[in-house]
Design a protein that fits this description.
binds adenosine-5'-diphosphate, about 10% strand, alpha/beta, binds magnesium ion, seven-stranded parallel β-sheet, 33 helices
Length: about 850
């Protein structure tokens, strides 16, 4: 730890410290988390460039790198040891490191890093988020800080947006690190533990944030120190930082193990629900994000199931299942929210448009959708561990990142992670033209206009990339284009294996590529493909034309799509087509308002009205602001459980790999029941007795923690009922979760002693392979897709913020609770009139 503190000083103090004071003052005055003054970085860049290593032979570069490595590993912070001790003061080490990477890049990749890349690299080395426009070469910029931090040998994780990019970047940038004597690995999704361990043992490891997080959860239930794959965390550099640190941040990652769970016949429920009719049996809220049983619907189900009142306490789980089934039937649409592939439900991520491996809906909803599609149920188990991505990132003492769209997320990045954002201008100014939106009153008019526009541009030979909102929309549009005689490629979650090939051709003359958000991040579309002459032709035609068929809730997603065009000073243009019937407006109840406000009537031609676009932009900003608020309250809820997780994990680590003898560990059997331990030692040998104690303790801790997580889930309803009684749900939640947590340690210690006694009562042979010393026989990991329930909307419509936030955190059962409230409030309303 001390060591890490020192390295921190190295990067922060020496390079940036003198300037942080003025910045802090500035921030204080303006509340601005964004830095645009690059003077300080400019100075360091000049220093780096003044070390021109072009004349040095390869061997000499390696020697210098080795010297830096040796120094960083022996004297992590020369500053504190006095400059006399060290060949390089730390500031110098940073400059030296950057100069070496610069030269290595020239030699190995034949890429001469731009100043913009050096500046971005410096910003990251000083613990910031670097905003560098799309196509400017962030992959290479990351190598500078990664190399610098990896000198210490403590491990740097470069966390990429998806597995494809982890592999691509590790292979692409790997030669630079290797040239300079560092090791590089890629922790691929689904790799064997042994390969993972090898990858994480490297100086620099490329992986997705998710996979690194799942590996942490797997480590969290390891029974042997040798099974751990991670080393202690040191530094993470997050690519596409706004997406991963903000959009994905609240997604809980879960590890589950086999365990029994009461279930009912989900198939039969699904059948009953399939025939339920909107308006009679159930209804949805205006935003179409919640579904409610009507009294009649409830009565029908009660009759069919013969279960008595669904709203009886004893039927609580059943009611939950009913609503999950309703939700699956009424609100989730195949080929929009999910696809079915190889007899499995694969959820399509709203932000990225791709299938995210391993993503599940919470609790019963997953099962309900499987039942709806008539698929075999995947087993659902006990949750053994869970962490949100946001908390996962907190494990790293050093965090930095890069993205093309940091500015709109800067405030959040600052608030949640304390990360400032540095805006780095592009190497060559962008000449991309973002055309004003084309706005239509209804969907059909928009669709016709899009088809005509694509056909028009295509006939001139200019490549077109179309970003759509869903798999279904992309397929529909492709069919329309086919009918219009325009050949096109489709890139969506269903054919993501063809991704590289489709992207490679997307910039070809005459190319029409219809994509979901998939093509939105990280993809590098080369004009004219690899052929120079074709490139010139496409440039002459105006470069890539990007059409967006929808505005996304998040402005950043729209920016990312636009950013596929006009990379590195290339020409290009973008345009969004919008209809006032688009989901985003419907969902937030804006459609009618916009019509009224602007006195619009349905028409087939575009609406020429600047005020409409302004209103739409405004709405988008409001929506994003509200999402921010939701994330902030969620954060408060998850904070306590995360703290508890860390306490348990620290305890567990101490048991798993004891620093000293087991007998001296506080709370051990040797301490609590010395006679028992002595008896066991006499019987099995001291080492075996220690091992027995260790195994039993780990199994008991995991058991208790899993129960605690289940308790947390189950407590949500009662907690939120309190909010009706005027107490603050957050405060109540924290109080009871703390009380419950405090029971864990005594419970585990007692259980271990009891198990020890039981064991002593049996025969003399100890077999650690027996079930009682093992965790669950099989485990799996997944992400909880918890946005399904529209809690944010509850909040927007002015209901209790605590309720909405807690609901999002705990999804399932609270959902039922929200339904109950809805029922109550309806009853009340009815009673009132
Ligand atoms: P970003 O992640 O910023 O969108 P990438 O890292 O995918 O950009 O790189 C985009 C393109 O820029 C790649 O084709 C890469 O080869 C090229 N590139 C990166 N750095 C340089 C450089 N210094 N000189 C020339 N081309 C570069
Ligand atoms: Mg990139």
């Amino acid at each position: 730890m001390q060591h890490q503190e020192k390295v921190k000083t190295l990067a922060f103090k020496k390079v940036v410290q003198p300037f942080t004071k003025t910045r802090a003052l500035f921030d204080k005055a303006t509340g601005n988390p964004v830095e645009t003054n690059l003077d300080i970085y400019g100075g360091v860049v000049s220093a780096v460039k003044s070390r021109d290593y072009r004349g040095l032979p390869d061997g000499e570069l390696k020697t210098r790198s080795e010297a830096l490595i040796a120094e960083a590993r022996s004297v992590p912070d020369v500053g504190e040891h006095g400059a006399a001790n060290a060949p390089f003061p730390p500031h110098d080490r940073l400059i030296g490191a950057f100069a070496l990477v610069r030269e290595a890049s020239r030699r190995v990749l034949r890429l001469d890093p731009f100043d913009a890349q050096l500046i971005a690299g410096l910003a990251m080395a000083s613990g910031k988020i670097a905003e560098l426009p799309t196509g400017e070469g962030k992959t290479l910029a990351a190598v500078f800080p990664a190399y610098f931090y990896a000198l210490s040998g403590m491990g740097v994780h470069v966390l990429t947006f998806n597995d494809y990019l982890a592999r691509r970047d590790a292979a692409w940038m790997g030669p630079i690190y290797e040239f300079l004597g560092l090791t590089v690995g890629c922790a691929r999704e689904g790799a064997q533990a042994e390969d993972k361990r090898r990858a994480y043992a490297c100086d620099v490891t490329y992986a997705t944030a998710r996979e690194a997080g799942f590996d942490l959860l797997r480590d969290g239930i390891a029974l042997l120190a040798g099974d751990l794959v991670h080393r202690p965390f040191h530094m993470a550099l997050v690519d596409e930082a706004d997406s991963i640190l903000i959009d994905e941040a609240r997604v809980p990652m879960v590890i589950a193990g086999v365990g029994e769970r009461a279930t009912w016949d989900a198939g039969r429920l699904a059948e009953l629900i399939k025939v339920s009719t909107w308006g009679r049996d159930h209804e949805t809220d205006a935003e179409h994000r919640n579904v409610f049983l009507t009294d009649e619907g409830a009565a029908r189900l009660e009759a069919a199931l013969g279960c008595g009142s669904l709203y009886d306490a004893k039927n609580q789980r059943l009611l939950e299942a009913v609503h999950c089934a309703l939700h699956a039937e009424a609100l989730l649409t195949r080929d929009v929210d999910y696809i079915v592939r190889d007899s499995q439900i694969e959820i399509v991520d709203e932000f990225t448009g791709r299938v995210v491996d391993n993503r599940h809906w919470p609790d019963g909803l997953q099962a309900a959708v499987e039942a709806k599609e008539g698929l075999a149920r995947k087993s659902e188990g006990r949750i053994l561990g869970s962490i949100t991505l946001q908390h996962f990132f907190r494990q790293y003492p050093y965090l930095c990142g890069m993205t093309a769209t940091a500015r709109p997320a800067a405030r959040e990045l600052k608030e949640f992670y304390g990360l400032s954002t540095v805006i780095v201008p592009p190497n060559r100014p962008s000449v991309r033209v973002d055309e004003p939106d084309r706005i239509y009153t209804h969907r059909e008019a928009k669709r016709t206009a899009i088809v005509a526009e694509i056909a028009r541009v295509h006939s001139g030979g200019r490549p077109v990339l179309v970003g759509t909102a869903s798999v279904r929309e992309s397929e529909k549009l492709a069919a329309d284009m086919g009918a219009a005689g325009v050949p096109c490629e489709v890139l969506n979650a269903k054919n993501d294996d063809l991704e590289a090939k489709i992207i490679a051709g997307a910039g070809n003359p005459g190319g029409v590529t219809i994509s979901t958000n998939m093509a939105g991040r990280g993809t590098d579309i080369k004009l004219g493909g690899e052929d120079e002459r074709e490139r010139d032709r496409v440039v002459a035609l105006g470069g890539l034309y990007v059409i967006g068929t929808n505005r996304h809730e998040s402005l950043r997603i729209d920016h990312q799509l636009r950013g596929r065009s006009g990379r590195q000073g290339d020409p290009g243009s973008t345009r969004f087509f919008i209809s006032l019937e688009d989901d985003i407006f419907g969902r937030y109840g804006l459609t009618g308002r916009l019509f009224k406000r602007h006195r619009l009537s349905r028409r087939s031609e575009a609406v020429e009205n600047g005020l409409v676009s302004r209103d739409i932009g405004h709405a988008q900003r409001v929506i994003e602001g509200q999402n921010f608020d939701i994330r902030r309250s969620l954060w408060k809820y998850s904070e306590l459980v995360e703290m508890q997780r860390r306490i348990i994990q620290d305890w567990r680590r101490g048991v798993l790999a004891p620093a000293t003898g087991i007998e001296t560990r506080p709370g051990s059997v040797a301490e609590k029941a010395p006679a028992l331990f002595t008896a066991a030692a006499a019987r099995f040998g001291k080492r075996e007795a220690g091992e027995l104690e260790r195994r039993l303790t780990l199994v008991q801790i995991d058991d208790a923690w899993s129960d605690h997580l289940a308790w947390v889930q189950d407590t949500r309803e009662s907690i939120h009922l309190l909010s009706l009684g005027g107490k603050t749900p957050l405060g109540e939640f924290q109080r009871s979760a703390t009380a419950e947590f405090l029971k864990i340690r005594p419970r585990v210690e007692e259980a271990v002693i009891a198990a020890f006694e039981t064991r002593l009562g049996k025969d003399d042979s100890l077999d650690f392979d027996a079930d009682e010393y093992k965790g669950p026989s099989s485990t799996w990991t997944y992400l909880v897709n918890e946005d399904q329930f529209g809690w944010g909307i509850e909040m927007l419509s002015g209901k209790n913020i605590g309720l909405a936030a807690g609901a999002a955190l705990f999804a399932g059962p609270l959902y039922v609770f929200a339904l109950l409230i809805n029922k109550l409030s309806k009853k009340k309303a009815r009673g009132a009139d």
